[in-house]
């Protein structure tokens, strides 16, 4: 079967790229954008600077700043109303993965009746939607370059993966200078998130030559730049490298898929309100250890690109070296376990069967090199708790 791939039509990459946002809107013939962001970026003045750039270019711009971390269906209602009130002709997602995912959902709901669960996997939506422009302020989610959004159902606590070309931004503004003030914890969690995207895209059963090249490039960049960015947030070269890597990893998994880490991560976020990147990090080493036997050569290639195995290292040894490297990375970047994060053991254990069921229902485990049954997923949840 031929490989298919989809990417944003316009990408501006590099320091100061946000200044070209108005130019991109003009190219797209958009004049009434709604800027979708969060209260932190609105309060810090960063979002207002973007509004000023657009207004100076003659764009009638309004701001919606009530997005929430790990957006829910309930959190979208006010945004839909803001779009209609402003008569927006496009949506700009400005922030981390949550504001961008919110913007994607709003772009569809502005012209399509809800509820949002209509659009969850395995359905793929490619119908009418407002154009989406994404400007990330974190280097991790890659949402600026993916044809997915993730929204939690407020009625069921299910974290829904909603795929389709209508969720793919038409333009991405990838400006590493927007990430310079990220604190170490957020730098670590989003960076490991990007690495998870890259590795899962490469070992996925849906991997292809296009996603492979992007995934391996992202792995190399993250190996070089994540730790320096974590240690010194003012390291411009490290920030630039991580921003490029996050976008490449997003492109990779958007055109391949994620797998078991993400399948298991989404329920943790939905039930325990753990940030997506952090819940990925909690799972990444253990899930990789479980999966290496199903794609040893591919995991070995990841290890070589990451720099923990050489060309003459056997695939078996290299794949195990990757597991150890991920374990050490999470230790060095002080990734907490669910227990040390403060999640109650009784609550965790009681929800494990439901989380395993939701992980399987997402479809992502079917992309994993080793396709687990629910009992194996439950065992991994139990393993990572401590």
TrEMBL record:
<dbReference type="InterPro" id="IPR018211">
    <property type="entry name" value="ADH_Fe_CS"/>
</dbReference>
<protein>
    <submittedName>
        <fullName>Alcohol dehydrogenase</fullName>
    </submittedName>
</protein>
<dbReference type="Pfam" id="PF00465">
    <property type="entry name" value="Fe-ADH"/>
</dbReference>
<dbReference type="InterPro" id="IPR001670">
    <property type="entry name" value="ADH_Fe/GldA"/>
</dbReference>
<dbReference type="InterPro" id="IPR056798">
    <property type="entry name" value="ADH_Fe_C"/>
</dbReference>
<feature type="domain" description="Fe-containing alcohol dehydrogenase-like C-terminal">
    <location>
        <begin position="187"/>
        <end position="384"/>
    </location>
</feature>
<dbReference type="GO" id="GO:0046872">
    <property type="term" value="F:metal ion binding"/>
</dbReference>
<comment type="similarity">
    <text>Belongs to the iron-containing alcohol dehydrogenase family.</text>
</comment>
<dbReference type="GO" id="GO:0004022">
    <property type="term" value="F:alcohol dehydrogenase (NAD+) activity"/>
</dbReference>
<dbReference type="InterPro" id="IPR039697">
    <property type="entry name" value="Alcohol_dehydrogenase_Fe"/>
</dbReference>
<keyword id="KW-0520">NAD</keyword>
<keyword id="KW-0560">Oxidoreductase</keyword>
<feature type="domain" description="Alcohol dehydrogenase iron-type/glycerol dehydrogenase GldA">
    <location>
        <begin position="8"/>
        <end position="175"/>
    </location>
</feature>
<dbReference type="Pfam" id="PF25137">
    <property type="entry name" value="ADH_Fe_C"/>
</dbReference>
